[in-house]
């Protein structure tokens, strides 16, 4: 499968040298190297110096956007299903200094505070078969970067790149995905995107439904558009009979059950305010929803729950394939490293999807008590590292430990499910 991945992108490199370096770079991203920067990837590849890796990211002739298109097609081929959802979100890359393209002091959820950082806006594709990142944009702050020609030139930012809000970048990526033939009925994202009316209108005009998080202070209109009211005030007025318990999907410790309510808003059809209530703390979350056709509450809940898939993508991309381990400052270099990391993640996600067993009759429980959990992205990378860097133990021993780890994880999962079921029955 790895050779097939490399064959897919081989034509994007005009010469054999950068093509071979790209292969070594991808193998390094998939390896057990602690920090996946050019120095350590070059050492892992057996190079005498990091020059080839650095040239691959900065000067070699190849189109990262074309490889991005290959990644998107590859993901759809392996993960595609009728229940596809596009997810938009951003993640931060903490940096030092002022020279890295787009870097400034700004809030990033990665650090949980204002830090000197770059921010990338990403698009993920999620289905019941898996999830992966399919597009990326580096956010370029308006005042500190877009209006500073010298700073732009030093970071290699193309002249045609102008300021765009994060929702605008998300809209561009969604349009590109739909134009490429991705079949997705829904878009979801957090408050940064749900609060933007232009994005919501654009999705409605494109005929794609959305479930977008918004703040509790968001004002909606009820009673056929006659009565304006805050979302949290509306939630307080709902009778207990309006709430229904639904699972927002399976988490690490079992089904994520919440109480949900929905209220028709506006005067047009299929606009709703969706409200989620934590069954333990009572904490509320709010979503603006629209669909081109009538859908049940359970479908909106499903899409709202899928939003967390992109967080899992970020965790896997940073923890497994070095999405944030780069040490580059140039605009082109950032896009090239991030694209290759997305390809490495897509490869692992494809293996996980192809190796997944058929879904059991009861989806939240293993088919047999002795079954291990399905192969995960970290486990696949662990096995991949062992194959490309053979250990001093036999393959039989290697597979024995793989099964042992996954059986242990299955035992832990069953314990979480039993504890969750016990808590809910007593509650």
Q: How is the topology of this model organized?
A:
Elements (H helix, E strand, L loop, with lengths): L1 H8 L6 H14 L8 H8 L5 H8 L5 H16 L5 E10 L9 E5 L4 E15 L2 E9 L3 H5 L2 H6 L11 H14 L6 E4 L1 H4 L2 H10 L2 E6 L4 E4 L4 E4 H7 L6 E8 L2 E11 L6 E7 L6 E7 L6 H10 L2 H12 L10 H25 L21 H12 L6 H32 L1
Parallel strand pairs: 1-5, 5-6
Antiparallel strand pairs: 1-3, 2-3, 3-4, 6-12, 7-8, 9-10, 10-11, 11-12
Helix pairs in contact: 2-3, 2-4, 2-14, 3-4, 5-14, 8-10, 13-14
Describe this protein with a few key phrases.
two-stranded antiparallel sheet; 10-stranded mixed sheet; 427 residues
In a few lines, what is going on in this structure?
By secondary structure, the chain is an alpha+beta fold.
- The helix-strand sequence is HHHHHEEEEHHHEHHEEEHEEEEHHHHH
State the major sheet.
Answer: 10 strands, mixed
Q: If helices are DSSP runs of H or I spanning 4 or more residues, what is the number of helices?
A: 16
Beta fraction? 15-25%
* Helix content range: 40-55%
Rg: 23 Å
Helix and strand composition category: alpha+beta
CA(first)-CA(last) distance: 48 Å
Overall 3D form: globular
What does the model show?
The model has no long low-confidence stretch (mean pLDDT 91). By secondary structure, the chain is α+β, with helices and mostly antiparallel strands. The protein has helices at 2-9, 16-29, 38-45, 51-58, 64-79, 142-146, 149-154, 166-179, 191-194, 197-206, 231-237, 297-306, 309-320, 331-355, 377-388, 395-426, and strands spanning 85-94, 104-108, 113-127, 130-138, 186-189, 209-214, 219-222, 227-230, 244-251, 254-264, 271-277, 284-290. The chain contains 16 helices and 12 strands. α2 (16-29) crosses α4 (51-58) and α3 crosses α4. The N and C termini lie far apart (48 Å). The longest helix is centred in the C-terminal third of the chain and has 32 residues, at 395-426. The strands form 2 sheets. Strands 1, 2, 3, 4, 5, 6, 9, 10, 11 and 12 form a 10-stranded mixed sheet that branches.
